[in-house]
Design a protein that fits this description.
about 425 residues; alpha/beta; Spore Coat Polysaccharide Biosynthesis Protein SpsA, Chain A; two-stranded antiparallel sheet; binds 2-acetamido-2-deoxy-beta-D-glucopyranose; golgi apparatus; metal-binding; glycosyltransferase; EC 2.4.1.143
Length: about 425
């Protein structure tokens, strides 16, 4: 026993030592890389001043992240640039709710979202973070045009879209579709339905998880934020009253719904615009315009294994079927108003002919009606809460839609959960 403990202690000391050595080595090599890349002219628009100190915290001895190419390294450096528009909005409001908008490559959608955000009352009080899956000029141009609040752009450096011939992108020896590894030697594990990974499909869940970890635990601007963070997507139309309503929901939540984990801008049924009642609603967590605080994030983060090993490529279904049920206290509720303040307008065209419940996008215009009541906060603090019990939806026991069977994806996902945590003793010293 004693022997055992002794060797464990030695083990720990050795690990710490290794950690310090590796951190130093990484620091030096990053320095060399940054010196080198700073002297070569940039060809892809990433030519802003990157002479920032190196963030040593993002390294750990346990990490086994894929080898980065030059472009990936550049993106990671770009992520350390300070927000734009600090000259216009030098101070964030004391109790601001940070907004994170995560996007891929649908510029005509992003245009609509950004235009809707420009009309949101109170938006200038907060910081907008745009998290990109892949690097696309058209998307950047839209974000660079934002003048209505502080904006910070971040890019997922391990996005499959950033790697052209190696994991997390496609590598030459990867198994494809229903390849049989025993008949034709190739790399990869099939999912529960026999299909091999598709980088385009896995990128969504990777991006969401990378973004969550980075926003809560990585970014200098937000890792100390102790309020709520609101998450929206590139195909969510945001009503002018969204921010003020959200502030009300967040302030009412502790009293009106102490069991609610989050606040939502929209009903969890994406086709509903709300009931229009004089009442607050508590229901299962939705995936449009959800906001929660760091306490909830810590709970989610503790379930990294559940999240990363569940064979479904959808982040939201993964949350509903494994992460939330693993909290163990029945459904995970969220609080919202009786009228929606956000609408999911994507997939339009697939659901045509279903009447006015589906917004459609046409030449960059969404034919969504914004009434006067949607322009000002329309939640009353004296309202009671109506709770929906036994709602339908994905639950514990659901096996997943697949698409997430490859060990490399699962490990990359776990690495994202560790990248800002391991090695904490030495990073504390080096800070
Ligand atoms: C964060 O939200 C949860 C769920 O609503 C709540 O229980 C917790 O007290 C909140 N934490 C802080 C620090 O406000």
């Amino acid at each position: 026993m004693a022997n055992n403990r002794n060797s464990r202690l030695k083990d720990a000391a050795f690990k710490r030592f290794l950690c310090v050595v590796l951190v130093t080595m990484l620091g030096v090599s990053l320095l060399i890389v940054s010196l080198r890349t700073n002297t070569t002219p940039a060809s892809n628009g990433l030519d802003e001043d990157l002479s920032e100190p190196i963030d040593i915290q993002s390294f750990s001895e346990k990490l086994n992240l894929p080898k980065q190419n030059e472009f990936s390294i550049r993106l990671e450096k770009q992520n350390r640039l300070p927000p734009r528009n600090i000259d216009l909005y030098p101070k964030l409001a004391k109790d601001h709710i940070t907004i994170v908008l995560y996007v891929h490559n649908r510029p005509q959608y992003l245009q609509v979202v950004v235009k809707s955000l420009s009309k949101v009352v109170g938006i200038s009080e907060t910081l907008l973070i745009v998290s990109h899956d892949g690097y696309f000029e058209e998307m950047n141009n839209i974000v660079e045009g934002i003048k209505f609040c502080q904006v910070k752009q971040i890019f997922a450096p391990y996005s499959p879209h950033v790697f052209t011939d190696s994991f997390p992108g496609v590598s030459p020896n990867d198994c494809k579709e229903k390849d049989d590894r025993w008949k034709k030697p190739c790399i990869g594990n099939p999912d529960q339905y026999g299909n091999h990974r598709s980088p385009k499909i896995v990128s969504l869940k990777h991006h969401w998880w990378w973004m969550m970890n980075t926003v809560w635990d990585g970014l200098q601007e937000t890792r100390g934020h102790d309020g709520h963070i609101l998450f929206i997507e590139e195909d969510h139309f945001i009503y002018p009253n969204a921010y003020r309503n959200l502030q009300l929901l967040v302030s009412l939540k502790p009293n009106k719904c102490p069991d609610c984990y989050a606040a939502n801008l929209a009903p969890c049924d994406v086709n509903s615009r709300g009931e229009g009642w004089d009442s607050l609603i508590a229901e299962r967590m939705g995936n449009v315009g959800y906001a929660f605080n760091r306490t909830v994030w810590r709970k989610i983060h503790r379930k990294a294994k559940e999240f990363c090993f569940f064979d479904d490529y959808n982040w939201d279904i993964t949350m509903w079927a494994t992460v939330y049920p693993s909290f163990g206290l029945g459904p995970v509720y969220t609080l919202r108003g009786p009228r929606t303040s956000a609408v999911h307008f994507g997939k339009c065209g697939l659901h045509q002919g279903q009447g006015q419940s589906n917004a459609c996008i046409d030449n960059g215009l969404v034919n969504l009606q914004v009434d006067d009541i949607d322009k000002v906060a329309n939640i009353r603090s004296e309202w009671d809460v109506h709770v929906y019990h036994n709602q339908p939806g994905y639950k514990a026991g659901f096996k997943g839609w697949g698409g997430w069977g490859d060990d490399r994806d699962r490990l990359l996902c776990l690495n994202f959960a560790q990248m800002y945590h391991s090695c904490s003793t030495s990073s504390a010293v080096m800070n």
